């Protein structure tokens, strides 16, 4: 009975009773539309003509030379709205519309998921409310304006640590109050069943395309697939197609913040232990009594004390490896990719790029490494400038 | 399985409508919380729900959230709850209310052993629906597991919950979080009837019961009410008052009077 919605021992549906029925309805609707040709045709139409899919697979020549590896970047940064988030929000908002919902809510940390949700709502004509921690509202002003311009209402959350986890709490509270009219668009592979599976499915287009593209370019599978992990939606999206190919090394890079020896990081697998947060059992950062810890990362999108349950499963079963890099290493990679390739990555994605410096010491020369470049760095420019100024002092 | 809480409450409910107040452990301070408890008049209440604070209480509205945060800031831990409650002798049954991760990290069996020793008879886990109940199997013969039902729950599932619940059935009054619920009375009435058809345990309604009048209205078609946010709000307003315990008793006596007027 307890098996439904689990990945091994992880996942589940740990929610107030009031949400069980809406989650059942969502699951039923999702299962129906996942197989419905018209729905898939419509979604694919928007993914292609509106979001700009397929995203290119780009061979990063100068970066490859420096790393002694063959580095391919899956360019999710080139999607409409600038990250992989649009793949999921188009899917979920379209689904919500088919379910007859008129009101959309979502949470956002860095603002990328909020912008992608507001965009899909504008496109499909649904009312949109975005919960965002007051601290994040302050540090991601540009994205707040973008959401407002797109017609969404941004609601600053002033409870708890005033960041992403508190925005999720508030969105869940909104949802229990308005379940009849409202769909909650969760932005990552977290939350109660069916969200981790549904979001992964919507994001799995990344890996499906990449697999085909790498075959076209190299005629074989990559040796390694690399992606950053906060909640882990871009990583699950690119990993999923490769999970059955056991010879492909899957690596998820968590936010090491100021280092794992400090409490200022967001490495849920690296430093956390099993627990229940936001509706599922997974690795989470918590104290010995089960209170959720405050986290830190230079990348707001990775600043979350939990991780998707399927990642916990891939970790526990040994199928994927989870590592972390510090804020400093991510900032260095941010600058390096900008200068070597003319691509300014999101600070989140820069975590994946940074790990190449460690992978190169382990993998044979010219190994093929596929990196998910989950988003572009425009949103981070101001913050990076501040860091660089402090550094040069 | 012995469901002592169920037997106690069933018997009490044959005599009067039940009143279960909720208090967050350690609010407004640990000392004044304990003083309130020691002075609670058992004539007014039938059991007491004690919240063990969690950092991320998703089912709770602003009043209980704030009381939880204040309590955590004062250093309240589940272990402290156990230690302090063990020293009190109270004449009414205690029910612990918390979130799954608190019990999970404490160790499920150990939680049951310790809290039983400290005078607790039951446990409510706000984010554990029916399907998660098997995770609490180790509490058998230690604590009664109280399940929540809601007005969104379909009929067959309501009956399942009614059969699986122990102590009583906790019916959430409508859509929303604690203290901020839109109560839908007609729906609620029907749901009570369905639950009653599947169990002889008392059915208590909670969330949004914010006045003696509301309590009377709702309890006229169920076995009693749970009063949380309204009580905590009252405690907050009077937290500096010298005789807070007496004021709490006055507050509860008004609810008791209203409930006794039914029939």
Distance between the termini of chain B: 34 Å
Shape of chain B: globular
Shape of chain A: globular
Along the chain, the helix and strand elements of chain A come as EEHHEHEHEHEHHEHEHHEHEHEEHEHHEH
Number of helices of chain A: 16
Structural class of chain B: alpha/beta
Largest sheet of chain A: 6 strands, mixed
Mean pLDDT across residues of chain A: 96
Figure out the total of helices of chain B: 11
- Strand order, largest beta sheet of chain B: 5-4-3-2-1-11-10-7-6
Pathway (chain A): Amino-acid biosynthesis; L-tryptophan biosynthesis; L-tryptophan from chorismate: step 5/5
Cofactor (chain A): pyridoxal 5'-phosphate
Modified residues (N6-(pyridoxal phosphate)lysine) (chain A): 85
InterPro entries (chain A): Trp_synth_b_CS, Trp_synth_beta, Trp_synth_beta/beta-like, TrpB-like_PALP, TrpB-like_PALP_sf
Describe this structure in words.
Chain A: Its cofactor is pyridoxal 5'-phosphate. Chain A: Pathway: Amino-acid biosynthesis; L-tryptophan biosynthesis; L-tryptophan from chorismate: step 5/5. Chain A: Residues 51-375 form the Tryptophan synthase beta chain-like PALP domain. Chain A: One of its GO terms (molecular function) is tryptophan synthase activity. By secondary structure, chain A is of the alpha/beta class. Chain A has 16 helices and 14 strands. In chain A, the strands form 4 sheets. In chain A, strands 3-4-14-9-10-13 form a 6-stranded mixed beta sheet, sandwiched between helices. Chain A has a 4-stranded parallel beta sheet with strand order 7-6-5-8, with helices on both faces. A two-stranded antiparallel sheet of chain A has the order 1-2. The mean pLDDT of chain A is 96. Chain B is an alpha/beta fold and 263 residues long. The longest helix of chain B is centred in the last third of the chain and has 17 residues, at 244-260. The termini of chain B are far apart. Classes of the chains: A alpha/beta (393), B alpha/beta (263). Chains A and B meet through helix 1, helix 8 and strand 11 of A and helix 3, helix 5, strand 6, strand 8 and strand 9 of B.
